[in-house]
Write a structure and sequence with these properties.
The protein is an alpha+beta fold and 623 residues long. It is built from 20 helices and 19 strands. Helices cover 35% and strands 14% of the residues.
Length: 623
Amino acid sequence: MKNTMKSKLFMGTAASIATLAMLATGGMTANAAETYPSDATQPDLVNLLADYDNYYQPSNSFDKNDPSTFGKGVVKNASVLKNDDAMTQNINNTAAKADDQGDGTTTPAKQQQRALIDSDYRMDETLPDSLGPVLGQYFTEGLNDGSLPLTKSLLVVDHVNPASGYNVSLMSDYLDTSVAKVTFNHPRPFVDRTNAGYVAAGLDKSVNIVRVPVWTSADGTKHDAGYDGFLTSGSFPSGHTTYAYSGGIALATLVPQLGPEIVTRASEAGNNRIVLGVHYPLDIMGGRIDGEASNTARWSDAQFRSSKLIPAYNELQNYLAAKCVADKHASEHANNYDTVQECVDNLGANADKGYTNNFVDAVSKKPVSDRQSAIDVYTNRLTYNFTQTGKAGQDPVVPEGAENLLYTTFPTLTADQRRQVLAASEIDSGYPLDASSEGYQRLNLAKAYSAKVTVAADGKLTNIEFGQPEASVVSDPNSKTVPVYRAYNPNSGLHHYTTSADEIASLVRQGWNYEGVAFQSAKADAKNPDIKPVYREYNPNNGTHNWTVSKKEHNDLVKAGWKDESAKDPAWYADSKGTVDVYRLYNPNSGEHVYTTSKDEYNNVGKAGWHQENIAWQGSAAE
């Protein structure tokens, strides 16, 4: 992020007061055991997808011990399922047209080959090209040579399931769709659907699909669509699509610089299930909802986020930054995020030199050739040419916790502000599956990941522009004050203050807790005698910072060995006629100073043993 933003005036919370009090007595205590609440509280997919019953009503759940129970039901909305069939046939048949890779029937064409690869259920095969050729190659090498163990654990494999023998990753394999599949009990496109009520509703007994032949790729891997294994396997929702979106949204969180491209690649992986003819669009839409709900559950689990997500983020960003600098695709910045962003810009990975494909059908409508076309294709796949079956024009609905899907993209926005970005990027209401989805059907993550967000001093979002080459948060240019952000490091127990959105965002992405805008500072004004510089010093011995308006204190600390971090420019400016008191406290155990506008926090932390050093300077009121 290149610019600053503004948020609500920070007020001390009970959590931060308790944290400060702990520091007075020696610090924090780590959890004795690593457990994740989200493991035991998976999203209820049957309820999230219940709107499907308005289109197809199963007569019973499928009992795997009794094959005769499979695929029995009634068509409730023939027009919706007719479009489901038509789009399935169009996408499948279009991909089967001969090209320079194959004839589409005896040897797979290019899109069919990609669909077969995606069917392998391996994120390390599906996701690399979403980063573009150069970064994608770095990513593949890092997964293979052991440089990215935390990333691999999250996306590809963490352990082997002793019961099944399958590799299991912490995120991509997190959500189990089996209960939903047997509950909705809907047959695949290529099987006889007479018992499912299709013929009685005037629809075809099966969809006229082209089966994609078994194919061995150049590396010797055999890829098989597995048609025979789906004869008594429910189509709705798509498990492969759930897996693709879970992995894709996870990688978009680790590499937010390319969020739109990554989730569009995930949407292609879902669409490729239709290319193979083993799923319908409604199955893919259901799988996308599952994937979004899956990541929301994981990202909203603070323990999982701090133990697994943030470490993997830091690992991958550090790895990509080092690779980019070594190969001269970027210069080294103060933080890895900006280094990777420069690399993305220089390589064109967020433009026409990144994730692309030339596949066109009745839904995608255009090739993916750059970021905007990727967003357009992603958006088209949110609805798959269905007409609205529910009420259009309803107010936006953002699922609880979904704001965490933008956690690393917009770390300096509050949860409420991130929810506003999601609401502004939503598609219209009323499309199939919307009614029960709690808002997941409407989410347009490709669009949300590309936003430039303008924030006023009072925390209101005054403008959101989508389709940008870089996600960013900027201050309203009409503001007369500058926000000072506050973040807390749960490992060291230290707080940090800065007017730099880049600096605070980098810290939050690394695992610091964002505590909002501590106060508003004044803008520089050499002609105003009331505007005074605030100096910043750093103690290399214990890692603490100090901020002061006292030139003498500043000079004394620098002489004592503190690093002058305001030699070029002050940390910010205070206004002696400001109306907001900024209090200063000192921890004699850690040597840290903390600044707050909350008199309650000042008093409570003082009672915990901190030295109260009165008012440090005057802040400005948010306008």
